[in-house]
Each structure stands twice: as structure tokens, then as C-alpha cells.
Amino acid sequence: MAGLFDICSHTSEKPVYSYSIITVDADKSLSWMHDRMPAILDGEDEIQKWLNYEEFPLNNALTLIKPKSCLAWHPVATEVGNTRIQLPHLIERIELGKPKSCAASSNLMMSWLGKRKPNDTGATDDDLVKKEKKL
């Protein structure tokens, strides 16, 4: 990705490092998902030209900043949108429409609910619900 950086060291304190990622209009292959995308430096040659800012003229560097179709995408878990969750498996491809697996606590609850015991009269909870509906 293309970006800008700076090191602010004109104070007596420790230097401050800062950077910005440059964005461009999204390539038509990704524009359905979002209207912007990062400026991509495609290949070692473009990266070296960008980083060699003292020798590579600014006008030439600007020609590198344009939408590119070198990105691929795949569906991921919705938890990706939660910045508090930082788990490596969240970037793995998921199958759309495939039912999510239940958490261990959900499985425990479903197991508990499935073990309906008869009450003192020998009727199950389902029998009592049916009886209440008749009333």
C-alpha cells in the first residue's frame, strides 16, 4: 500500500512517528463493496520507486497512485467489524448461508433444554404447555 510518513523530531522529547495510508476511488471490481480502496503499489519496482522519494520525481510517483485490480476478496465472519475482537481465524474464508456453529455455552443450554424430566405428576413440560393451551 502507498502511504506517507513523517518523523517529527524538532522537540526535545522522543521523535514522533506518523503515517497515513493513501486511498483512491475503488477499482470497478471492488466498487460494489466500497467507494474507496487503499492505493496499491503493485510489485517490487513500484515499491522501490515510491520509497526512493529523493530520486524519483513527485510527478512520476503520482502516476503510481491509481485504482488497481490486484486485490482479491472473500466473505469473512461478521466479528471482523468489531475492533475489540482480534482473533487470527476471523480473516479465514467462510461459506455464505452455512449455519454458524454454536458456542460451547449454547450447546450446553440446548443439551439441558433437551433433557426434559417429568414433573411430580409424570407429565413433561410439553404436556403442561399443551394442557394450558386447552384451557
Helix/sheet category: alpha+beta
Which parts are unreliable, with pLDDT below 50 for 5 consecutive residues or more?
none
Q: What fraction of residues sit in β-strands?
A: 5-15%
| Spatial order of strands in the largest sheet | 1-2
Radius of gyration computed on alpha carbons? 28 Å
Q: What's the number of extended β-strand segments? A: 4
**Proportion of residues in helical segments:** 25-40%
The helix tally amounts to: 4
Average pLDDT confidence is 80
Q: Quick one: biggest sheet? A: 2 strands, antiparallel
* Elements, N to C (H/E): EEEEHHHH
Through-space gap between termini: 69 Å
- Specify the overall morphology: elongated
Q: Which SSEs are present, and which pair or pack?
A:
Layout: E1 3-8, E2 16-21, E3 23-25, E4 36-38, H1 44-51, H2 58-62, H3 104-114, H4 125-134
Antiparallel strand pairs: 1-2, 3-4
Key attributes of the depicted protein:
4 helices, two-stranded antiparallel ribbon, alpha+beta
Structure description:
- It is a single chain.
- This protein has 135 residues and is of the alpha+beta class.
- Helices cover 25% and strands 13% of the residues.
- It has 4 helices and 4 strands; from the N terminus they run ββββαααα.
- The strands form 2 sheets. Strands 1-2 form a two-stranded antiparallel sheet. The chain has a two-stranded antiparallel ribbon with strand order 3-4.
- The longest helix has 11 residues, at 104-114.
- The protein starts with a strand and ends with a helix.
- The model has no long low-confidence stretch (mean pLDDT 80).
